[in-house]
Amino acid sequence: MALVTTAEVCDANPQLIMSGELRALQPVFQIYGRRQVFSGPVVTLKVFEDNVLVREFLEEKGNGRVLVVDGGGSLRCAILGGNPVVQAQNNGWAGIVVNGCIRDVDEINGCDIGVRALASHPMKANKKGIGEKHVPITIAGTRISDGEWLYADTDGILISRTELSV
């Protein structure tokens, strides 16, 4: 989103908001990483206190996509850490949104990638590889499907069914 804020997108598109084509996530996420503004097509993942599938996705080429992880809102461990975020940055992911916790905050804050998460937590996740890829998820009061578009800045996070022409 070149110099157009999420607030401006909302102001300019009341019809898309009313129809549900454009939705805002509830403001529950903390901002991490050096890239405070990011956008891209969404890839969804649903896990619970397990980060194997998160790591697997971020080992792939990102091609400007945004990984949106429904971690069940767990505040008992981190499902994303510094090493996978460095890998995501190097593989061309635009951002990562985690409905759960992260750790290695100083390392993540040094990366040129956008990261949003509920909080930080020092404990690591399980490594069982259990979860669901490319499924519709609901986080922060919003249903998100694979292939939709995510737009994030310091005002919030928007989900659009299609890429917005801004």
From TrEMBL:
<dbReference type="GO" id="GO:0008428">
    <property type="term" value="F:ribonuclease inhibitor activity"/>
</dbReference>
<dbReference type="GO" id="GO:0047443">
    <property type="term" value="F:4-hydroxy-4-methyl-2-oxoglutarate aldolase activity"/>
</dbReference>
<keyword id="KW-0479">Metal-binding</keyword>
<comment type="subunit">
    <text>Homotrimer.</text>
</comment>
<dbReference type="InterPro" id="IPR010203">
    <property type="entry name" value="RraA"/>
</dbReference>
<dbReference type="GO" id="GO:0046872">
    <property type="term" value="F:metal ion binding"/>
</dbReference>
<dbReference type="GO" id="GO:0051252">
    <property type="term" value="P:regulation of RNA metabolic process"/>
</dbReference>
<keyword id="KW-0460">Magnesium</keyword>
<feature type="binding site">
    <location>
        <begin position="81"/>
        <end position="84"/>
    </location>
    <ligand>
        <name>substrate</name>
    </ligand>
</feature>
<protein>
    <recommendedName>
        <fullName>4-hydroxy-4-methyl-2-oxoglutarate aldolase</fullName>
        <ecNumber>4.1.1.112</ecNumber>
        <ecNumber>4.1.3.17</ecNumber>
    </recommendedName>
</protein>
<dbReference type="InterPro" id="IPR005493">
    <property type="entry name" value="RraA/RraA-like"/>
</dbReference>
<comment type="similarity">
    <text>Belongs to the class II aldolase/RraA-like family.</text>
</comment>
<comment type="function">
    <text>Catalyzes the aldol cleavage of 4-hydroxy-4-methyl-2-oxoglutarate (HMG) into 2 molecules of pyruvate. Also contains a secondary oxaloacetate (OAA) decarboxylase activity due to the common pyruvate enolate transition state formed following C-C bond cleavage in the retro-aldol and decarboxylation reactions.</text>
</comment>
<keyword id="KW-0456">Lyase</keyword>
<dbReference type="GO" id="GO:0008948">
    <property type="term" value="F:oxaloacetate decarboxylase activity"/>
</dbReference>
<dbReference type="InterPro" id="IPR036704">
    <property type="entry name" value="RraA/RraA-like_sf"/>
</dbReference>
<feature type="binding site">
    <location>
        <position position="104"/>
    </location>
    <ligand>
        <name>Mg(2+)</name>
    </ligand>
</feature>
<dbReference type="Pfam" id="PF03737">
    <property type="entry name" value="RraA-like"/>
</dbReference>
<feature type="binding site">
    <location>
        <position position="103"/>
    </location>
    <ligand>
        <name>substrate</name>
    </ligand>
</feature>
